[in-house]
Amino acid sequence: AITHYYIETSDDKAPVTDTNIPSHLEQMLDILTQEEGERDSGETGPCMEYLLHHKILETLYTLGKADCPPGMKQQVLTFYTKLLAHIRQPLLPHINVHRPVQKLVRLCGDVLAAPTENEEIQFLCIVCAKLKQDPYLRGKRSCTFINMNMYILLAPDTGQSPAEEQAGCPKEPQATAAASTSSPTSNNNNSNNYNLVTSLPQPHKEPCEIVVKACEGLMLLVSLPEPSAAKCLTENTELCELLTDRLVSFYKALPQSMDPLDIETVESVNWGLDVYNLKEDAAIFTGKRPLISFLSWLDYCDQLIKEAHKSAATVMAKAVRERFFVSVMEPQLMQTSEVGILTSTALLNRIIRQVTSEALMQEMVYFLLGEEREPETPATVAQNPLRHRLIEHCDHLSDEISIMTLRLFEQLIQKPNQHILHSLVLRSLEERNYLENKPQEEREPLENGQPHDAVDLEEDPLFVDDLSPDSRLSGSDWLGSSPRQSPDHTKSDGKTEVHKIVNSFLCLVPDEAKSSYQVEGTGYDTYLRDAHRQFRDFCGVCQRWDWRGHPKPFEKCNLDAPFFEGHFLKVLFDRMGRILDQPYDVNLQVTAVLSKLCLLPHPHLHEYQLDPYISLAPGCRSLFSVIVRVVGDLMLRIHHIPDFTPKLLLVRKRLLGLEPEGITIDHMTLLEGVIVLEEFCKELAAIAFVKYHAAAASSSP
């Protein structure tokens, strides 16, 4: 009937919808579907044999390509899509299906924003789905066939620059493209060379179902399990280049200066659910729309890498590292402009927060921290310029830059990546050479877990026991469900009992410098609950890493090697040592990073950070020793401040919002520093308590 239409009709201007062709095509589909349903699985009926033998699909392709009568291309695309979707038996391996499907793929995207765009994407996505489910097609033919069917993802190159696109040039969102007959990589500069990946959606345009469908199609293709398909994607297409080029263009479209708070608080972005209003976005803050576009595309790249075959994911992640992080972000982070540093650091912090795919996270970490594994020395701290610069920014002249960089590291150490913690902290503690290196027989006998000539903190005037009722931790047993991660301290093995450790931290700040006991609701309960929850979360992250439950035995440690705490801990300890002279917000962020490190269930880090009674090697410092020096300085300064205790209490109440802001108080920075110091010591005590009970509970029968 369709053939007769072309023989008998001379008017080729009438739209196809005015003819019987659509109904005839529907009838053909109905007949084929019914025929398959009436036969045994895998058996080909006479109507399907006829369609294959007489090359009906080739004929329909030719009619669709000519688009005669007008709208015929749309009808042909719909027929192909429904045929592949409704027929259960595999059709694509048949040469008389395979060839016309390849030709129709090339036809897709011939015209930008064509009326058939929706039908094109539906057709291309069903091809992707069939590739995913048919192992035969993913075998020898995978490279050529995937090359023909990934055109769903990018608009053809129009020669238009990203800046022109961002300026709002009148080009409609486009999600499909045609294929040239040449190899996709044969002429990278040819604007008519439609690569397999050259239809990536444009997230800065108005999102639509077509774009989302196109993205879903590529998700199907990158997740093909065959190595040959992954190799094809990464070696025979421009997938990596086009993904990263789009990421770079979105990043470069961002304003040079943005408020870090806007970057940090902009709503979560999902590439498939990006709905926006340009006027509303511009009214909230300048650059919101470009920022969401960038984060949306980053989310798509991240999810694509997460779904991809492992080998393809590795290649794509390395491409993002080289073509985006190294080429674009590194110069931004290394610049000298404070405004530029602040904006780029805030953006990097948001990127770290958003990335979840293992491969991309690994490459991002190597970009930031380097791949070195050996312990740091003072001579090698600048070996990786970017790592060195970022750590130095934690102690920048600009408090804003310091705070933002400290937040970045706080975010980083919570990511499920072992190399982050090894690079920043653990490689410096591997040999436990922070401990005094004396043979056991030369050491003084222990009294209550410490040398007889050591300072007894419980008898020192700075650490008196006369504390308020809520200043000690009770032996609660509600933490018993925590997993074992850190060594316990018992009398039997010569280690300090946990209550001594806990009270050592609680007694660090002298009574005259304490103010929390005078304000209701500032006890330890919150710190205990938070420490328990956070420690459990960290244990969940770290449980698959090879962290021993006990420290490395002394006899296996190289205790003669000179100890260097590492660049990161050095800067944090230096900052902690100036807690009485730094702004309140800086102190909060420094202690936040240190407390996160203390929560980590690594025995060496636990010993170094949370055991006040270890004998440190000469010239070494620990977190506890740094705090002791701060307290010593505080005691000297307290006596020079009139009405110190009432002023301290007033500042605490103002910080809690219990007192209105009034007259300026002298020594405000020091008073705020004392309050942070007291709260930090309570937090460390709670962490030590929680970690001890976790170990004790897991070791008991």
UniProtKB/TrEMBL annotation:
Residues 162-196, 474-496 are annotated as: Disordered. It comes from Scophthalmus maximus (Turbot). This is FHF complex subunit HOOK-interacting protein C-terminal domain-containing protein. The lineage of its organism: Eukaryota, Metazoa, Chordata, Craniata, Vertebrata. The gene is fhip2a. Residues 486-496 have a biased composition (Basic and acidic residues). Residues 175-196 have a biased composition (Low complexity). It holds the Pfam family KELAA. It comes from the Eukaryota. Residues 565-657 form the FHF complex subunit HOOK-interacting protein C-terminal domain. Belongs to the FHIP family.
